[in-house]
From TrEMBL:
Protein's name in the database: Chitin-binding type-2 domain-containing protein
Source taxon at top rank: Eukaryota
Ranges where the record places region Disordered: 31-85
Species of provenance: Hermetia illucens (Black soldier fly)
Alphabetized Pfam families for the sequence: CBM_14
Gene3D superfamilies linked to this entry: Chitin binding domain
InterPro entries assigned to the protein according to its UniProt record, in alphabetical order: Chitin-bd_dom, Chitin-bd_dom_sf, Chitin_bind-dev_reg
Compositional bias (Gly residues): 67-78
Record bears the keyword Ubl conjugation: no
Signal peptide: 1-29
Entry GO CC: extracellular region
SMART domains linked: ChtBD2
Domain Chitin-binding type-2 per the UniProt entry, residue ranges: 87-146, 190-251, 268-322
Source lineage: Eukaryota, Metazoa, Ecdysozoa, Arthropoda, Hexapoda
Keyword set, alphabetical order: Chitin-binding, Disulfide bond, Glycoprotein, Repeat, Signal
Length: 375
């Protein structure tokens, strides 16, 4: 009897202890306030995006173009900022859609896979064209004006003890002259009339020919002239003089010129008959177009310093390349380039992300070799 009672007490005590343990365990199993979802440990993992349609144009020289989420290689442009301000538009348009950014015509918004919009600048100082959903020359985009570039001066002219005051040394003729009468920029043979104010209103000596010269007008046009037989051009005196007075003159540089004419594009038909394939963008030789499976076009850029040529991004510049020799990853860097038009009296002036059609005027034409207007 005593033994049975003791056993019952032990069993009851054991049951009470078990209940107490279960109660304590239940208390600590309640949500600890951290907000973690124990049923979905991957709930806080950011969703990765699929590679954009078209991916990137593979190239030789170990270069690749293209993009993930559509941004792609933009010639060194900023990556852009992702914002939730455009979730409404992107939810309607879908991932990889692009539309204009109202506050700046040189930027656009690209929808991401998570429904946000990424503000992206056009590379190389170009502007965004909402009609083609691509970046192109600023003057080709309605209502977009090129940014004002700061005036510049030719500051690479050599100094010499024999020159006085503001004079600089002309290494071609071994004489002292005033700034703006010889080309001083390193690697250049012709004056950049649209970039350097010092040249305006001056006759500038030709580095290729002792008898020739350029003239920069106030409206930034560049003209080419030459002295008559038996005379050389003297930049210091701003006139033609007898050869004998500048017998020491020797040309020091030979320049090259662009012979290609810019090509237009019909965005509505550019991918006709082409699907799932990369094709050149005829407006920009460092850009390409991917024709999607449904035949819709999408533009992307090759890495900085490369061009789209024969189906890939390469360092070899195609012969059709116009107005892009000086496009760099730095959109603020000044550049100037000339290209011919089909009209012999006109030419294209390319500078700071824009390509402008200029007219030489009456009784003159554009010369390919000198890249200037001549009479």
């Amino acid at each position: 009897m005593y033994m049975r009672s003791t056993q019952q007490e032990v069993v009851v005590q054991g049951l009470l202890l078990l209940c107490l343990i279960l109660a304590i365990t239940r208390t600590y199993a309640v949500d600890d306030g951290t907000g973690a979802d124990t049923d979905n440990p991957g709930a806080d993992v950011t969703e990765g995006g699929d590679e954009q349609n078209g991916g990137g144009a593979g190239g030789d020289d170990n270069q690749t173009g293209g993009s993930e989420t559509g941004g792609g290689e933009t010639g060194g442009a900023d990556e852009g900022s992702t914002t939730s301000d455009y979730t409404t538009e992107c939810s309607q348009l879908g991932a990889y859609a692009r539309f204009k950014y109202d506050d700046d015509c040189k930027q656009y918004v690209e929808c991401q896979v998570d429904g946000t919009g990424k503000l992206t600048p056009c590379p190389l100082g170009l502007a965004y064209d909402p009609d083609t959903e691509s970046c192109t020359w600023t003057s080709d985009v309605d209502g977009c004006k090129p940014g004002e570039s700061d005036s510049n001066t030719a500051d690479d002219c050599p100094s010499d003890a024999s020159c006085t005051g503001t004079e600089i040394l002309d290494p071609m003729r071994k004489i002292c002259t005033q700034p703006g009468t010889i080309v001083c920029e390193k690697g250049e043979s012709m004056p950049k009339c649209s970039l350097i104010d010092t040249y305006k209103g001056h006759f500038i000596a030709d580095k290729e020919d002792c008898a020739s010269y350029y003239y920069c007008s106030d409206d930034e046009k560049r003209y080419k002239g030459s002295c008559t037989e038996g005379y050389y051009f003297d930049p210091a005196r701003q006139m033609c003089v007898y050869k004998s007075s500048l017998a020491q003159c020797k040309p020091i540089k030979t320049s090259s010129s662009s012979t290609s004419t810019p090509t237009a594009i019909d965005w509505d038909t550019v991918c006709n008959g082409v699907k799932s394939k990369f094709i050149p963008d005829p407006r920009l030789c460092n850009a390409y177009i991917y024709c999607n499976g449904d035949g819709t076009p999408r533009q992307d850029f090759c890495p900085t310093g490369t061009y789209f040529n024969n189906g890939s991004c390469t360092k070899t510049k195609p012969s059709s390349c116009t107005c892009e020799s000086f496009l760099t990853s730095d959109a603020t860097k000044k550049y100037e380039e000339y290209a011919p038009d089909t009209d012999k009296s006109k030419y294209y002036l390319c500078k700071n992300g824009d390509r402008i059609l200029e007219d030489c005027g009456a009784n003159s034409h554009y010369d390919l070799k000198t890249q200037s207007c001549t009479f």
